[in-house]
Amino acid sequence: MTAEELARIQFASTSIYHFLFVPLTIGLALLTAMLQTAWYRGGRSEHLKLTRFFGTLLVINIAVGVVTGLVQEFQFGMNWSVYSRFVGDVFGAPLAMEGLVAFFFESTFLGLWLFGWGRLSKRVHLATIWAVAVGSALSAAFIMAANSWMQHPVGYQLDPATGRAQLTSITELLTNGVFLRGYLHVLLASAITASVVVLGISAWHLRRGSSPEAFTRSARLAIGVLVPAALIGMLVGSELGVTEARFQPMKIAASEAQWTTCGPCSFSLFQVGGGTRDETPTKIIQVPHLLSLLATNSWDGQVQGLNDVQAQYEQQYGPGDYVPNVFVQYWSMRVMAYLGGLLLLLGLWGFWRRRTLVESPWLLRVAIWAVPVPFVINTAGWLLTENGRQPWIVQGLLRTADAASPSVGIGTIATSLGVFVLLYGALAVVDWLLMARFARKELDPVTAPDDPTTSLTDDDAPVFEPTS
Question: Which pTM does this prediction carry?
C-alpha cells in the first residue's frame, strides 16, 4: 500500500467519524431551540425538562465533535502539503470565516446558554440557544463552500508563476450551484438525523412509561420535523444530482454503473455486477426514465456513460483512468436513497399515530431501532460525494495522486493512522456511554414559573453536570 493510499484511508476515516457528529449537532441545536421556544411561549414545565434533557445530549455531542474535527486540519499540512499549497489562497477565506466567525459565535453563545440559566432573562437566554443553532449552521456553510469548490471550482485563477489557485471572487465561491444545493441538503439531513434520534429516545421512554406526557411532546415535535425534512430532502437531493451531472458527469454515471451513453435512461433498483468495463451487469427491476429525470430533470434526457466521459477526459487532461470506484458509487447512492425512503415512511407512520403514540408499541420499537439509520445515510452520502470525484482532489485541476506530501513516508502515516484509530475508538466508547447514560435518565424534576416572561431562579436553574 502506498503512502497516498494510507493518507486517503486516514483522512476518510477521520472525516467519516467527524461527520457522525456534525449533522446531529446542527439538528439537535435546532430542536433544543424549538423546545425552549415552546417553554418560553407556554411556560409548561414539560418543555423546560425536555430542553434540559436534550440540551445535555447536545453539549456532549459538541464536545466530542469538536475534538474529532481539529485533527483534520493537521492532516492537511502533514499528509497533503501539495494540496494545501495549491488551494491555500482559496480555502483561506472560508476556513478563516468558519474559525473566526462561526465557531467562536457558536461556542460563545453555547457558554452563555449553559451558564445563563437564572442569570439572563428568559428572552435573552432563548436568543442564546438560537444563536448556537445559527452558529453551527454557519460553521457547516463555510466548510461546505470550501468542499463545493473542490467539486466545481469557481471564482479563481491560476497564478502563472506558482501554478497555485487564487481566489478572485468570494461571491462566486458562496453562490456556487454545488454549494447552494449541497448545503441545503446537509441542513435537511441534519434535521432528519436529530429528529430520528429524538424520536427514538422518546420512544424508548414511552415504552417504559417514563414521563409519557413530556416524551409524547418531544416525539410529536420530532415527527413534525422529520416528515417535511425528508420530503424536501428528496427533492433537493434530486436537484443536486442534476447540478452534479452538469459539472461531474462521471460521478452520476458511476452511481448507476452506466458505461454507455443513454437517453432516455432507466434506473436499476438492484443489479449484480457491472463494476468494470468488461463485466455486463444483471439489472433487476428497472424503473424506465427515472435516471433521466434524476440526472437531467427531463423525461427523455440523455445521460453520458462512463466510457464516453473517460474518452473526453483523456482528450482534455491526458492519459489516465478517470473512473471512480463504481461499486462504492452505485451502492452508496442506493443505501442513501432507500434508507431515506424508509425514514420518510417512519415519519408518516408516526404522523398517522401521533395522537396515540403510547398505544403504538410496534411504532415505538421501530423508532428505537431506526436511530442508527440516519448516520448510515450520512456516511453513504459522504462516500457518494467524495468517491465520485476521484481521481481528482480538485475537479479538473489537481489529481489526488499528485496532492500528497512527497516527504512523508509510509511508516509515519501508518503510525499516525494507528494512533487515530485507537484514539477515535476510545472517544467512540466514551461518547456512546455518555449519550446512552443521559438518554436513559428520567427527566429531572425542574419546575418553571407560570409567567413565561420571568427568568428562573438560581434554585430552579438546570445544571449541566453528571449526576448518578
Answer: 0.87
